[in-house]
Amino acid sequence: MKYNIAVIPGDGIGPEVIKETLRVLDVAAKDTDIELNYTSYLAGGCAIDEAGLPLPQETIDGTKESDAVLLGAVGGDKWDTLGSDMRPENALLGLRAALGLFANLRPAVLFTQLTQACPLKPELIQNGLDIMVIRELTGGIYFGDKGRDDKSGYDTLRYSDYEIKRIAHVAFKAAMKRGKKVTSVDKANVLESSRVWRKFVEEVAEEYPEVTLNHMYVDNAAMQLVRWPEQFDVIVTGNMFGDILSDEAAMITGSIGMLPSASLGDTTLGMYEPVHGSAPDISGQELANPLATIMSAAMMLRYSLAQDDLATKIESAVDKALSDGARTKDIALPGEKILSTTQMTNAVIANMEK
User: Which domains, and CATH codes, for the chain?
Assistant: First the structure.
């Protein structure tokens, strides 16, 4: 079976972690009837440098024709002074909109091997952490009307019933396969958009009587994630709140370099990327942790390519590498041996080939 994968290395450490992830994918597919074909495309700062804009039409067309998209990271200090319409991050917004990717799934899982790297007190994580943050991705304040003049600026936060209901269904379906609990996060005590959000989430909840729904204001949710994270199963929220809370959830698991994400729509085509950014300060130094991108590729195999066995093979190899003591700088404790980006990938591959 042949699959066409659109590969967007991006900026900073993006090309490094993508390179290592493709090595893992090739080993996973070896000796099977699965053929993975990769085509590279420009997006982000590198696209600005080479093509004059963050998201060339060729990239949009290529990703639409692929079976899945694997992305490294975009952005960096080099392009910080550009106007809002030329920011590298616009490539992400543009891809999500062009591909209809409205649901961002960010699992925040604390590997037992990394418990000591978690910044929370041990008693708060004694039962482990396994939280799924589901973020609405193509609406809200990031896509609303916006503008500025010499003395002011504005961004419009708007949500429709259709946008809210479809992301709520994603959350409740996910909860049915997990702990059957959904926490909907909003700011309904202040924002009209959040009151609308709460209304339509509740309507969808009626279709899932086995799932418990509770509401939480975003400021309280941010506090509760560090006060008592075990209370959460599935968190569903809007674009901006989800952006912030998913990064917070990532850090309480020990390192943002460990966490993958999937952006999905109504079809099997999805975009998969690590939660971390481009980290230009460590680019080219073999310091990047490739595991978040490798685990993103496993999500790609599972959600877009329906290759659960290969996904599990990669995930098990990552778990075994961590159990064997493999650590990159971001997850290493004082005194532990630090592996380079390539060495960490080698540790994963070694466990896949056993």
Answer: 1-109+261-354 (3.40.718.10), 119-252 (3.40.718.10)
